[in-house]
Amino acid sequence: MSTIAGKTVLVTGADGFIGSHVVERLVADGANVRAMCLYNSNGSAGWLDESPVRDDVDVRLADIRDAEYVRTLVKGTDIVLHLAALIAIPYSYVAPRSYVDTNITGTLNVLEAVRAEGIERMVHTSTSEVYGTPETVPITVEHPLRGQSPYSASKIGADKMCESYALSFETPVTVLRPFNTFGPRQSMRAVIPTILNQLLAGADEVHLGALSPKRDFTYVADTADGFVRAATTNLAPGTVVQLGTGRTVSIAETFDMCLAATGSNATVTTDEDRFRPAGSEVEILLSDPSQAAEVLGWTPRTSLEDGLKQTAEWLRDRVDAKRAEVYHR
Ligand SMILES: NC(=O)c1ccc[n+]([C@@H]2O[C@H](COP(=O)([O-])OP(=O)(O)OC[C@H]3O[C@@H](n4cnc5c(N)ncnc54)[C@H](O)[C@@H]3O)[C@@H](O)[C@H]2O)c1
Q: Which percentage of the chain shows pLDDT scores above 90?
């Protein structure tokens, strides 16, 4: 493993939940960070706007779909961490073409720029959603891929573009495949913020979708640690590495743990419109964490219980009671 200190690192999706934590970790480790945030007319850098490292990074507003400008931003960097994506599964049911453009073409633009500029290393962000409902658990990187939602299909497409660049051009890309990540700054689309927001808003009855699906949740600081390790580890081009804990809990169990984290005794009710279509619901995600330990020396440090407490603490002063019960797609 080399050191990240002194390296110039481009982070795409730096304005987002995981990206902003990765940027903070990189700055703490002494990297020079170029932070690509989605262009908007009010100059917002998303979550970086409230980060203590906002003035320590070179923020560039851009769109990952613009190949020429992506190349301009890649030029002069040592390492590229590619996190920009559209990530909501429900929105992918209604606007799938945006997912193809952003997630597949966007990744192609980054790969092409990395190849043309001779960049030392690229880390592409995959997702455990690429497996669909698994045939066997725990899931290993050899497990077949199944596009159970347009989001999943677009991420499979992006992963396959990385594979093709690794095989065809030996592009030094590592495909990092996080399982569900949670923590401060996560969007209300995700299940843990959905539960915690309603509980902290004082709900007696919390509205959720299906309670039976099981997920393997990683705390965001651990995910950020995985990115730094992947950025500094010289793996064969195209290597896929999973980031997950090896523990899976149902949404019903997650709800109970959120009650414990907030001291609430609310009950739960399920809303039909929050359910995914039957063929699209992924019933269980459970990672085999042994490969990440072996190739990156990565093991998650924060338990789900502790991470939920930290997330609830962060959310406590930010709860928007009027919007807590709204279903965010
Ligand atoms: N959150 C999870 O549980 C999870 C799990 C596995 C993988 N991932 C992956 O991690 C990455 C980051 O996800 P996140 O949870 O931080 O989501 P996020 O939505 O907070 O971050 C994604 C960022 O990408 C940016 N973006 C979207 N379209 C863009 C475009 N056209 N040009 C430039 N930027 C654009 C958005 O502004 C956003 O800030 C994604 O690639 C996602 O697929 C997330």
A: 92
